[in-house]
Amino acid sequence: MNKERQTLAIAPLGNLDSYIRAANNCPMLTAEEEKTLAKQLHYEGDLNAAKALILSHLRFVIHIARNYSGYGLPQADLIQEGNIGLMKAVRRFNHEIGVRLVSFAVHWIKAEIHEYVLRNWRIVKVATTKAQRKLFFNLRKTKQRLGWFNQDEVDMVARELGVSIKDVREMESRMAAQDITFDLSSDDETGEMRPMAPVLYLQDKTSDFADGIEEDNWDLHAAEKLNDAMLSLDLRSQYIIRARWLDGENKTTLQELADKYGVSAERVRQLEKNAMKKLRIAIEA
User: Fold this and answer.
1) For labelling alongside 188, which of 44, 118, 226, 284 has CA 20 to 30 A away?
2) DSSP state of 12
3) Comparing 132 with 100, which gets the higher pLDDT?
4) How far apart are CA 93 and CA 56, in angstroms?
5) Burial class of residue 258 in the structure, from the number of CB atoms within 10 Å of its CB (0-12 exposed, 13-18 middle, 19+ buried)
6) What's the rounded mean pLDDT across residues 207-229?
7) Percent helix, strand and coil across the chain, each rounded to 5?
8) Is the dihedral of CA 67, 123, 126, 187 positive or negative?
9) pLDDT digits (tens, 9 = 90+) for 4-28
10) Secondary element (H or E) of residue 143
11) DSSP string for 149-198
């Protein structure tokens, strides 16, 4: 394998034209070479054989990806998704079935590209079921030839694709819908505002920004007051309050504190009670 094939990335990073040239320079495999590499991968798990099979078919992925350029999606992303499908096909390819890898891989390559198109062509999915996906791609191909359908054309498409007229109309409506940006774009901010931007009229009734700010300020104020009040206590009382109320969920028991200071549990309870009284007076002042 030459140096160019060894350094060629599976994903078209950087300059797309350079990637395409490098992919086209990878030599095609003969049927015998392909079969030998497939055996090495299948029986020996040879990753170098898998790499050789993939690199020799990158040009085929590029050819398929070009058929989806009309969706307005980056060509590099389409190729990358197709390459994922190619890798899946190589992993599943069985040389004993008697077909070339290129014939076997076309399904996997198209499947990955289809998924990418449906995920990214609209923010809201236009097709979720297998039947809807098939209708989406067939309908878009037909629309490129006919444009917006009249009733006769709807009837014709429904017959050709074996679906109902309602399904054709519904998918046509979904495909014609346009995504609306929630916020204003940079052009909107400096020029005339678009009244249909949802940010202008949608209201979040589940929260109140002013109440949130007020609550945060109160929490900060209360924390500062408590800290100042704690500093007014002697060190033993500070430790008792922290151990009993402020240090996590597992409170230290009165007996544990009594053992620490060599006094009775009742004496610790009295110290705790007096410290809490001092804290309350200091915080409320």
Assistant:
1) 118
2) -
3) 100
4) 15
5) middle
6) 75
7) 70, 0, 30
8) negative
9) 444 454 555 568 888 888 988 888 8
10) helix 130-146
11) --HHHHHHHHHHHT--HHHHHHHHHHHH-----SS--HHHHHSPPPTT-G
Nearest-Å Rg of the Cα atoms of the chain is 35
Q: And the tokens for 143?
A: 């629309």
Listed residue (177, 176, 117, 179) closest to 148, CA to CA: 176
DSSP string of 21-79, one letter each residue:
HHHHHSPPPPHHHHHHHHHHHHHH--HHHHHHHHHTTHHHHHHHHHTTGGG---HHHHH
Tell me the residue type at 236: R
Two tokens, residue 126: 């236009």
* CA 101 – CA 94 distance, rounded (Å): 9
Tokens of 138: 């067939």
Residue 199 sits at φ, ψ, to 5 deg, of -60, -20
The listed range with the strongest mean pLDDT (105-109, 127-131, 149-153) is 105-109
Confidence of residue 95 (pLDDT cuts 50, 70, 90): confident
Residue labelled with tokens 């289809």: 114
